[in-house]
TrEMBL record:
It comes from Glutinoglossum americanum. Residues 163-173 have a biased composition (Polar residues). It comes from the Eukaryota. Residues 159-179 are annotated as: Disordered. This is Prolyl 4-hydroxylase alpha subunit Fe(2+) 2OG dioxygenase domain-containing protein.
Length: 982
């Protein structure tokens, strides 16, 4: 058990002492002393203030469209105010009737003016007195006119509590509207003008204390004013005679100039410093009986959007300011938070009346019940008889400026300073009546706003715990601390916190790596959830360690990398080599490099390390490690050219950069053999050749070397241009829709279909252009011949994914390279490719119009049956009189035919079209024709197409290879009888 102490405050000294006793546990003692000290810090000396004055000037009330109102108020003036209050309703007689029976008449500032300039000076004097009475600085508050109220005989105001914007998200009435966007309301000022009356006393209640403020005594000739914070409950007793005339003001402040306390509270602040000093000593000694955190519940509740210091009111703001000073003196952190306690359990069933209804809102079973008001005005809830689940959570934690620090962190009930913190009952209830075998249950919600206090040394562990559950943005946290270090390098607090956070992340990673064995992954659920998040976090830890100058932390972070560091960190590592020494960190770098298995990843990382080193070197730091670092980078680059690793398109580009850095010798001894081993990966190989060609054109690599490498590589690459489906390649899920593709047993199922070799048509065409530029005519035509051969046997989908884009780009390439579009070799390739596409994709025209006979044997029906049995035609038109048209139409089922009468001539035409599902093949064929024409015409302009297709242009664009001869039929069967088929 930890040491038990008792604190005694020496009020004769600003430095307070404490001595050890055995009467109370330290945690309870600190809570008790904290509560007592804060209770003495009261910003509201009198929660409401009141005074009278007789020598005030007449404000000279002028009501628009009516005139002046004299003071003291006479009967006539009162009637003028009443009349003005009823204006503005127009034809809405219902509202006018309601307003006429109300005994409190109100005028908004738009309807009246205070025309005496001297009244403003009086108002400023009153505001100054109010500031002294309620304990705020005079310059920060303003009184803004809200309304003029007239209480008639019998008028009263029921008990109510103001709800200002900073304490509620609910929209307020006109009372809430504040001139200007910057000011916020914190209280109310009412000035009673000369108007003789009896009754109308103001009753104000705050924390169980009540004040009665009388306005009747000085009312005949004098003035009185009363002011109170918006959080008090106030009511007006009935006016028994006369008229009570009030000017009502909002007391406002500017958030950036929030009301500040007038008293210094020297003793109370000194007491708080002693409490935090005691707490700090006990915590640093490792005593378990000292609290790790404390949450002190504030008087008011604040919404998440208004949770910051400038929005705090009264005692809350003053106490938080005093706590902030005490925390700064003892190396503590202070935050604001909205707390929610949730208690769920069993409760008694609702009592039902004779009609079967319960006392709540929903009868037998309902949800969201907030409780009913009893006679005393309290809210009633169902009593939970058996607790099944409970917990307390800090829903949102912010610093005093409102910056969000964390969300949804659980705490224990013993972490709350006040012992009776939930004695007032819940704020909300969810109730569910019994259903089936389940009894009635209820969930109570208690919501409070707290100030959260903790030692700085504890804050990292406190907020870090949710990181394991991914509830906190650790990247933002590290960056926030790093900014604090940069802003104030001499402050050790942010440095220590940042170092501790980095250490916790490293320890967490080592745990999941399994026995801290580098490079081996732990078999844990965490690994499968979000390993990349940890890699990014470790990168930030590496960067933070360099900012802190903690080389031990830097080396530990490198050792805790799960797989690979984020790319952006390598420049910083290069910079750090000057301070660390290359030999000191080579072991960690040797471990980190193999994790970058891909060629482009490793090359970029090594290049960034060298860049970072040379960046510092350019500032005059010397180059004593440069030669060793360059040799090491070359060695690690060579190791990346492992013939067994998979390659990617980016690797091809990286290889060219390697050649430029290490020379032609490296090309022929290391790079070219590596490319040949992986030549079947056409995307990788073509990317390599493309970048090599660009380097040759730019003069970075000798053009003859480029030509030789092209010739040598293409010798093995061209045979790999296979466009048929190959089971050795990757697979994908594909639904068979294209005609000519492999048939599926069930067309509505997605079956795994082997994918063609990965080759991009655009890149392949560019490769042809590069071969033309390098004078590799033989290789150019080998590529075209290979693609021509493959196109004859490939599936239609390959044309649109690769071959047609290839041909389109080839047309553009031939224009750029000044190659002649009319060259017979290119024309032959384009003609064969497009003919293969048309034949395999569009296919021969379909005219499957055959239908069963429906005729009765008459001449007209015989003509109908001839049409139905002819598979070539889809529609027929008969020119005949009405009876004959009706006879033919009656023979056909309307579900399979379209029957339309065309009244363009006499006799009318009866048009019959075959429309059932048998026509789908024809429709699909026409759609394929349109699609094929779209692709062909999209290959280039008409001039370009005529050039590349030569004499075959009309034949290919007209899709002649798949069209049947067109027949036109217009024939008369007998005189006066006409039939048209199409």
């Amino acid at each position: 058990m930890g040491t038990v102490i008792n604190m005694r405050i020496n009020t004769n000294s600003t430095v307070q002492s404490c001595y050890i006793d055995t009467s109370i546990q330290p945690a309870q003692l600190i809570k008790q002393k904290l509560r007592k000290s804060l209770a003495k810090i009261d910003s509201i000396r009198s929660f409401a203030t009141y005074d009278t004055f007789l020598d005030a000037p007449n404000p000279r009330i002028f009501i628009k469209d009516i005139g002046d109102i004299g003071l003291p108020l006479a009967e006539q003036g009162a009637h003028l105010i009443i009349r003005a209050s009823l204006q503005g309703f127009g034809d809405d007689w219902s509202k006018a009737a309601i307003a006429s029976v109300k005994r409190i008449k109100e005028l908004n500032p738009e309807k009246f003016e205070l025309q005496n300039p001297a009244w403003q000076r009086t108002l400023e004097e009153i505001t100054g007195k109010i500031a002294l009475d309620i304990g705020v600085d005079t310059p920060t508050i303003r009184a803004e006119l809200y309304k003029l109220s007239l209480y008639q005989r019998g008028a009263k105001l029921r008990p109510q509590e103001e709800t200002f914007p900073s304490t509620s998200t609910q929209p307020r009435s006109a009372r809430q509207r504040i001139p200007g966007k910057e000011s916020q309301v914190f209280g109310t000022l009412e000035i009673c003008l000369p108007s003789k009356h009896e009754g109308g006393d103001l009753r104000i209640t705050h924390k169980g204390k009540t004040k009665i403020l009388e306005t009747a005594k000085p009312s005949e000739y004098g003035y009185s004013y009363m002011a109170w914070y918006g959080t008090v409950i106030h009511e007006v007793q009935p006016v028994t005679s006369g008229y009570r005339l009030m000017l009502i003001y909002n007391l406002t402040y500017i958030p950036s100039q929030a009301p500040t306390p007038a008293p210094n509270f020297v003793l109370e602040k000194s007491g708080l410093r002693s409490i935090f000093a005691l707490w700090d000593r006990g915590f640093k000694m490792g005593e378990e009986t000292y609290p790790e955190i404390l949450a002190y519940i504030l008087d008011q509740k604040y919404t998440d959007s208004n949770l910051e210091f400038v929005n705090l009111k009264g005692n809350d703001q003053l106490r938080v300011r005093c706590l902030e000073e005490a925390c700064a003196s003892a190396d503590f952190y202070i935050y604001l938070s909205n707390l929610e306690r949730r208690v769920s359990g069993c409760c008694d069933e609702e009592e039902y009346d004779k009609f079967g209804y319960g006392s709540g809102f929903g009868g037998l079973a309902y949800f969201g019940h907030r409780g009913d008001k009893d006679e005393g005005g309290d809210t009633s809830f169902h009593e939970i008889t058996e607790i099944l689940e409970e917990g307390i959570k800090l829903k949102r934690i912010v610093d005093l400026d409102g910056l969000e620090i964390a969300t949804d962190i659980c705490i224990k009930e013993c972490d709350i300073a006040q012992p009776d913190h939930f004695a007032k009952g819940p704020d909300e209830e969810d109730y569910a009546g019994s259903s089936g075998s389940s009894g009635a249950t209820a969930t109570h919600y208690y919501r409070r706003t707290v100030v959260l206090l903790m030692p700085r040394a504890k804050s990292t562990e406190f907020f870090f715990e949710p990181v394991k559950n991914r509830q906190l943005d650790i990247k933002s946290w590290i960056e926030r601390l790093a900014q604090a270090v940069r802003a104030n390098p001499s402050d050790s607090g942010p440095k220590d916190e940042l170092a501790r956070l980095c250490q916790l992340i490293i320890e967490m990673n080592k745990t999941f790596l399994g026995n801290s064995h580098l490079g081996q992954f732990a078999k844990s659920e965490w690994e499968s959830k979000d390993m990349q998040y940890s890699e990014d976090a470790i990168g930030r830890v590496v960067k933070a360690s360099l900012l802190l100058g903690r080389m031990d932390l830097f080396q530990e972070a490198l050792a805790a990398v799960p797989q690979r560091l984020s790319p952006w960190i390598y420049v910083d590592i290069g910079k750090a080599i000057h301070a660390l020494g290359f030999t000191q960190i080579r072991k960690e770098l040797d471990i980190a490099a193999p994790r970058l298995a891909r060629v482009y990843e490793r090359y970029n990382a090594l290049d960034d390390i060298l860049f970072g080193y040379e960046l510092v070197n350019s500032q005059g730091s010397g180059d004593k490690y440069l030669i060793g670092l360059e040799e090491w980078a070359k060695e690690k680059t060579l190791e990346s050219l492992d013939h067994k690793i998979p390659v990617f398109q980016k690797d091809g580009s990286a290889l060219v950069k390697i050649i430029q850095k290490y020379g032609d010798e490296f090309l022929f001894e290391q790079v070219l053999p590596f490319v040949k081993v992986n030549v079947s990966n056409t995307a990788f190989t073509m990317a390599f050749l493309t970048k090599l060609f660009e380097a040759g054109e730019g003069g970075k690599i000798d053009k003859s070397v480029v030509t030789n490498v092209f010739r040598d590589t293409l010798l093995e690459l061209i045979p790999e241009f296979e466009l048929s489906f190959d089971s050795a390649n990757n697979k994908r899920q594909k639904t068979i829709n294209d005609p000519g593709d492999p048939p599926s047993p069930k067309s509505n199922l997605c079956l795994p279909i082997p994918l063609v070799r990965v080759m991009n048509g655009h890149n392949a065409a560019n490769l042809v252009g590069q071969c033309i530029s390098l004078g590799l005519d033989s290789e150019t035509h080998e590529i075209l011949n290979k693609l021509t051969f493959e196109s004859q046997n490939t599936y239609p989908s390959v044309f649109e994914s690769m071959l047609l884009p290839f041909l389109k780009q080839l047309v553009a390439v031939l224009q750029k390279t000044n190659a002649h579009l009319h060259d017979i070799r290119y024309q032959h390739f384009a003609q064969q490719l497009l003919n293969a596409y048309i034949c395999r994709f569009v296919r021969t025209e379909t005219r499957d119009w055959l239908r069963p006979h429906y005729g009765c044997g008459c001449d007209d029906c015989n003509q109908l049956d001839r049409f139905l049995s002819d598979e070539r035609f889809g529609s027929v038109s008969f020119s005949m009189v009405r009876k004959r048209r009706e006879h033919i139409a009656s023979r056909l089922p309307v579900s399979r035919y379209s029957i339309v009468t065309m009244k363009t001539s006499s006799p009318y035409w009866l048009v019959i079209s075959k429309t059932d599902e048998g026509c789908l093949s024809v429709v699909k064929w026409k759609e394929r024709c349109e699609k094929a024409l779209g692709w062909i015409k999209g290959l280039g302009t008409e001039e370009e197409l005529r050039g590349v297709l030569g004499l075959k242009y009309e034949e290919i664009v007209g899709l002649s290879a798949v069209r049947l001869p067109t027949a036109q039929f217009v024939w008369d069967v007998t005189p006066g009888r006409r039939v048209r088929l199409s």
